[in-house]
Design brief:
Layout: E1 4-6, E2 10-13, E3 20-25, H1 38-41, E4 46-51, H2 68-82, E5 89-94, H3 96-108, E6 116-122, H4 141-151, H5 165-181, E7 194-199, E8 222-226, H6 237-248
Parallel strand pairs: 3-4, 3-5, 5-6, 6-7, 7-8
Antiparallel strand pairs: 1-2, 2-4
Helix pairs in contact: 2-3
Amino acid sequence: MSTDIRTRWLRGVRAPGARIRLVCFPHAGGAAGHFHDWAALTPPEIEVMAVQYPGRQDRLADPCPTTMDELADTVTKVLLHERADDRPLALFGHSMGASVAYEVARRLEEVPGLALTRLFVSGRARPRVPQEEPPRPAPTDSEILDRVRLLDPAGAAVYEEPELRPFIMPALRADFGLLAAYRPARLHRLRTPVTVCGGDRDPGCAVEELTSWSDVTTQEPDIRVFEGGHFYLTPRKAELLGVITEQLS
C-alpha cells in the first residue's frame, strides 16, 4: 500500500520500489497540488514529490520567504533531511519554480555523494544577473493581476473573487516580489544535464528564450517545445511526462 508524503514542505506518494525521486517546484502563486496526479501517470520507478511553498493552502499562516536564497537554502535543507536512502534526485520546476529548481540544483551539486541526475526547467528563461537586468521594485497588485491574466486567462478568474483575494493574494504578492528582486551575482554552470521545456505560444517565455539555459550548464541543454501557452503542461501533461519518464529511465 502506498503512503502519502506529507510534511510541511513536501507532498506526494511514497514509492518504496522507486529508483529515482523527482521533486517538482510550482509556479508563482502555485502549490504542490498542481502535481497531485503526476505519480499516477509515471511508472513506479519514479517517486514524485512536490514542494509546498509557505503562505498558501494549509501553510497559509507560514511566512513567505523574502529572497530566493532563503527559499532555495530551506528547500535544499529539507530535501537533504528527508533523504532516507541514496536514491538519486531529479528536479522539475515550472515558471518561478524553474528558477527555484535551478538554485536548489546548484546547491545540491555541492553535496558530496549526492546524485542529481537531471534538471527540468519549464516556461522560464534562465536567471538574469544584475548587469543584464537590475532588480525591480515589487510589482503592485494591479501589475501582478495583469501578468496573471496574460499567462493564465482561465485560472485568473479566481483572483476576481473579492472574498478569496485576502487568502490568495499574499502568496502571489510575495512570489512576484521575490522574483522581481532575484538577480544572482553570477551564473553557475551546472554539471547536471538540463532539459528545457516550453509552450510554443507562451506569452511569458518565447521559444527563443528557452535556449538561454545553455549559459548555465556545461552541456548542451535538451530543448522540448510543446503546443500551448504558459501552462501548456496541463493539456500536454501526458506528453510532458513521457519526456520526463524517457529521460529518467
